Amino acid sequence: MTYVVTVDTCIPEDTPEMDPLQRAGAVALIEDGFDSVRAIEGPDGVEVDLLDTIVAVHPGGALLKVIVDAPALAFAEDSVRALVDELLERTELLADWTIERCEVELHQDLAKASLDAADGPDAPPDDPAARKARHAEPPTPEGTDDGDDAEAKATAVRTQMLGLADELRSFPPVMFGVLDNDRDNEDGEREDGDDGFTVPPESARLAAGALVYATDILVDELFEDVQVLTQEDAAVAECEGPLWHLERLPDRYALQYDAHFARRFLVTAIAMTTRFTDGSFERLSCVAEELALRFLLSRTTMTLELYDLLDDDVSAALEAFADNVYEDRDHEWLYDDSTDGIDESPVGVTLGVAPMEFKTWFTPFKEGRYVHPSAANEPEAAA
């Protein structure tokens, strides 16, 4: 069975965060290590096949997605941990790194439901699209014939999201429409926003926590899209399997969204959201990040709606966040075929529209904008 093992690795506690050059070097070292391995000897001599890896390095370490074919989940986790341990130990520059987490991420409710229904009348449907639709539904706790348990689940998710809000370190409450505490008028009195409305702080916290909560979901769903395109060896336009997000990219380039592109897009989403949470985010770097943020906001909204947590104040907080993070919404023109080529037209040049053709999606908007080395264009493409 194929398992996706998530590994969080961290640099030593007293070590300064890595700069872009060091991160690029770490990516190369880790990828070279994986490239030298085809199979892993797991517990009791069981051989575990290494199918694929994705490496996303951030200032404090690296997030690894390791795909293996193993007879059981425990073999997958133990084998990958042993592999990464050995990879770090034998690489002098990474020898002091530590593994903070190594696990196959399963939603407990869905996993239990699948086990319970394996041979019963509620067995998961054979059709992949039907399974996708089923698993897209909100998990339902046991005995939820009335609304009490659903309400309890929503309360628990809300509490979890509020607890995650502090992890979105790059964005103070003012980015979500909360009135700046330093904003007083000449008489020393408080002022409302320009439109007379300010988002309540708790609504802003819920929106921030929901973004962090949705990030894990988005990354896992994008990873599943990578797997589908890899297995079918097809582009999105030709893919027959179910896709979570990549089929919602602009249709005009659907024949170019292949597995290689999907990996670059996944790494871009991980790099962007890592900067959101580690406090280093400044501006979106490229068109691919603008599209990744579009997907994150959509997943966040859908998740809040699933648990009936999306009220007007939380919606306003997310809208304020989007307005503050996006420098413009030029990427939305990619969804309108009538504007194809506007970035190269005299009108586009006058308006200062950034290049939006497919080959520029992973090219930094300006010098100094961070694009992950695994996603960046080749030098000739970037030029």
Protein described:
- The chain has 383 residues and is of the alpha+beta class.
- Helix content is 43%, strand content 10%.
- The protein has helices at 20-35, 73-90, 108-116, 128-135, 147-164, 201-232, 259-278, 287-306, 312-325, 346-351, 379-382; strands at 2-10, 39-41, 47-58, 61-69, 98-104.
- The chain has a 5-stranded antiparallel sheet with strand order 2-3-4-1-5.
- Strand 3 and strand 4 form a beta hairpin.
- The relative contact order is 0.10.
Write the layout of secondary structure elements.
Blueprint: E1 2-10, H1 20-35, E2 39-41, E3 47-58, E4 61-69, H2 73-90, E5 98-104, H3 108-116, H4 128-135, H5 147-164, H6 201-232, H7 259-278, H8 287-306, H9 312-325, H10 346-351, H11 379-382
Antiparallel strand pairs: 1-4, 1-5, 2-3, 3-4
Main attributes of the structure:
383 residues, alpha+beta, five-stranded antiparallel β-sheet, 11 helices, 5 strands, disordered C terminus
DSSP helix fraction: 40-55%
Radius of gyration: 22 Å
Shape: globular
Total beta-strand segments: 5
